[in-house]
Amino acid sequence: MRILILGGTGEARALAAALADSPDLQAVSSLAGRVSNPALPVGEVRIGGFGGVDGLVDYVRGERIDAVVAATHPFAGTITRNAASAAAIVGLPLVILRRPPWTPDASWVRVPDIEEAARHVAATPAGVVFLTTGRRDLSAFAGDATHHFLVRAVEPPEGERPQQLTLLLDRGPFRLEGELRLFREYAVSLLVTKDSGGEMTVAKLAAARELGVPVVVVDRPALPPGPPVRSTVDGVLDWLAQLAG
User: What's the pLDDT score for residue 50?
Assistant: First the structure.
């Protein structure tokens, strides 16, 4: 069986590694190509978009893919929806590998999307906003001239951005000691983040809690209806084993 793994997440890489020595399951990992120096999984890799649902349908047919695992980032909603649509068109089994969200804190302000997060920030007093929602979401805050934004990203952002911005280029995992030091150094007054889950970046939430810094959390987009969802690599391996018979 040829398995298409969508996503450059740690879970996607772990799944590719688990399948590397399988005599019956051959994994092909697909990365979006938005990062210039991504961490590559073992085995066969393709980089770049598919061109929407039609392009994905052509790819899985041309490459004789037998099953799809959507192991994308929890906020990569478009490719997950496209995968579900393409799998339904071709009649391929598809499973979604999605890490659990962070344990919620009663003090968090939860918002449905990045635009609502920007509106919430605009209504708060002037201060330093630690913005960890990704380099592609800065345009939502571009009109805010009141706050200073501390932005951490793997690569420099493109497009519109806030007028007052300090950019930190860094890649996780991040530890609590370092996050506490960063919060204090920049006098962070508000943290805005996405509910990505996982251990790589959770320390910022612990730092905010310890220092009493308010937190705004953007909720995950809804998953497409229908495909089964597994929260661990082992769960996906069990699903593949059942599929293989």
Answer: 94
Cα(118)–Cα(138) distance, integer angstroms: 9
Give the confidence band of 155 by pLDDT, cuts at 50, 70, 90.
confident
Phi, psi at residue 28, to the nearest 5°?
A: -120, 115
* Order of all β-strands in the sheet with 2-6: 44-47, 26-31, 2-6, 67-70, 94-97, 229-230
CATH number of the domain at 109-218, out of 3.30.2320, 3.40.50, 1.10.3470, 2.30.30?
3.40.50
The CB-side HSE value for 124 (13 A sphere, CA atoms) comes to: 20
Strand blocks (E) in the chain: 2-6, 26-31, 44-47, 67-70, 94-97, 109-111, 128-132, 148-153, 165-169, 188-194, 215-218, 229-230
DSSP 12-26: HHHHHHHHTT-SS-E
- pTM recorded for the entire structure: 0.89
pLDDT interval class at 195 (50, 70, 90): very high
Q: How is the chain split into domains, by residue range?
A: 2-99+221-244, 109-218
Q: How far is CA 134 from CA 9, 75, 152, 153, 158, in A?
A: 15, 10, 8, 6, 11
Please state which CATH number belongs to domain 2-99+221-244: 3.40.50.720
Proportion of the chain above pLDDT 90, given as a percent = 85
Q: Are 1 and 24 in contact (CB under 8 A)?
A: yes
Report residue 13 as tokens.
């890489």
